[in-house]
Amino acid sequence: MRKVLLSMVAVALSAPAFAGEFNKVLSPGDKAPDFSGIPAVAPNGEQASLTLSDIKDDVVVVVFLANHCPAVVAVEDRLNEFTSEYKDKGVRVVGVCVDSREGDKLPAIKKRIGDKNDGKINYVYGHDESQTIGKAYGAVATPTFVVLDKDRKVAYLGAFDDNGKEEKVTKHYVKDAVDAVLAGKAPAVAETRAQGCGIPYNK
Amino acid sequence: MIRKTALLTAGLVAYLACVGRGDEPVALKSLTWAEFQKHLASPPEGAKFTIVDAWATTCGPCKENFPHLVEMHAKYAAKGLVVVSLSLDDVEDSKALADAEKFLREKRANFTNVLLKEEFGVGFEKLDISAIPAVFLYGPDGKEVKRFTMDDPNNQFTYDEVEKEVVARLGGSK
């Protein structure tokens, strides 16, 4: 009995209570959950799809988005700048939405990308009706960012930076994590709280 | 005479609509996190526990589910349930605050409606959540006894679960 108790203590000490500090499913270092054939729209408005194994870039940044969400709108310009700045450095940004409301689905995504006034979105943006990718990545709020390294392990999980208001940002978590991974190092900050609009999962 | 009665009735109806069940008028009360903690720790006499619903005017699912909170107030306030809504709206966004107050009035949220007076986003950290809506139960000492969140994609709460818990804690049936 004592032995059993001791081994339980050992397990408790070695395994964290949750997956990540904030993420209930994934932690830094985990193998990236695979995804394939998620219907998507390319920046030029053409039909596309999201398949992890098709991406050959050194770094992949999976971003959970939702058209309706003010926190997503607030980060969009920064995300577009980031995507442009890093696209020739071997970094691929993948946008995906798992929200079920009409305004967040693929036709709305296509309209948003195609809208001339808003035509700055420069990453492929998909919608997973089944919500599988969201559950697999433990995404519960938009925007949530997941940085994957060359081995497609999770290098960073969480928020883009430390403030929803650009002028107040002091820490650039995603950029710093990507820079570290590109330099062959582990990011100094591997997980932060992704907060914003909740993602309701269908029961 | 009839006209007078009708006027009186209309006046009474308007008065009742304003004050609801004799609770405070529907308005946002700005509290810092520390003030909010104090508020939770000093509930009115007879309070068994306090239910707090964290929401924001930009949160669709929060607004869709808000009537559950109003209903629980109507059903369980007399049995010792104190109801508090906690807006995490941006205190610097006057339009959001106006929208929030309008929404609360429309929903007849005749209970304490708090606006968290902290920098935008701090509420999530303080409550230790990633997403709203989120519901918390606090004992009369202000200590959290139960939470319901959206934070685990495989175990997101429903307001049905919240009400069941409330009923169980009040020691009665639904």
Give an overview in words:
The complex is a heterodimer of chains A (203) and B (174). Chain A has 203 residues and is an alpha+beta fold. In chain A, helix 3 links the parallel strand 4 and strand 5. The termini of chain A are far apart. The relative contact order of chain A is 0.21. Chain B has one domain: Glutaredoxin (3-Layer(aba) Sandwich), CATH 3.40.30. Chain B has 6 helices and 6 strands. Chain B has a 6-stranded mixed beta sheet. In chain B, helix 3 runs parallel beside helix 6. Chain B is globular, with a radius of gyration of 17 Å.
CATH class placement of chain A: Alpha Beta
Kindly state the number of beta strands of chain A.
9
- The rounded Rg of chain B comes to 17 Å
Structural class call of chain B reads alpha/beta
CATH hierarchy, class of chain B: Alpha Beta
CATH topology of chain A: Glutaredoxin
CATH homologous group name of chain B? Glutaredoxin
Mean pLDDT over the full residue set of chain B: 89
* Strand percentage of chain B: 15-25%
Give the helices and strands of chain B as they follow along the chain: HEHEHEHEHEEH
Structural class of chain A, by secondary structure, is alpha+beta
Strand order of the largest sheet of chain A: 2-1-5-4-3-7-8
CATH topology of chain B: Glutaredoxin
Oligomer: heterodimer
- Which spans of chain A of ≥5 residues are poorly predicted at pLDDT below 50? 3-18
Distance between the termini of chain A: 40 Å
Estimate the mean pLDDT confidence of chain A: 90
Helicity level of chain A: 25-40%
Topology of chain A as a string of helices (H) and strands (E) = HEEEHEHEHEEEHE
Q: Strands of the biggest beta sheet of chain B: in what spatial order?
A: 1-4-3-2-5-6
Calculate Rg of chain A over CA atoms. Answer: 18 Å
